[in-house]
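WARN no homologs supplied; continuing
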Amino acid sequence: MNGFVAAAPTKPQPTIENGTFWPPISPDEFTATMRLDGTTTPERQREALVTAMVNVNRELLSWRKSQEAQGYASLGDVPYDDSVDGKSPKEHNYRRAVFCIAKANVTERYRDFDATAKGDRKAASLETEIADLWRDARWSMRELQDLNHNTTVLV
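OK structure emitted
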């Protein structure tokens, strides 16, 4: 026996609706895009996505209201220069922000415990991955709003 355990394939998950302004989110795209290996259940992934959507929507509330005041009924209606893969860059940035926050949330809660040196190295690499995911989410939200990235260091 080689110790390999394959995760059972999951059935397609229903899309998560997201009000009238923000685009719906596909749990299946999340799983594939963020390379989740099946150790978290579809229900846990859905919960992480819903939580991420709520957080991103809250962070972007004033921006959304200003867009709606200008007459844009959805994120897809907000003007942009060029489409990428058939969609607005703003839609791509929204999806990335949601996916990054959801994966950071899943990763934070599903770290393996291993008291060996190998386990310490794995935990350290996960800390870096989590920080990168939070950074990418922040950058995506700023790009969606046509803002520059800001990095502040407290000395």
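Residues 117-144 form the longest helix (28 residues).
OK
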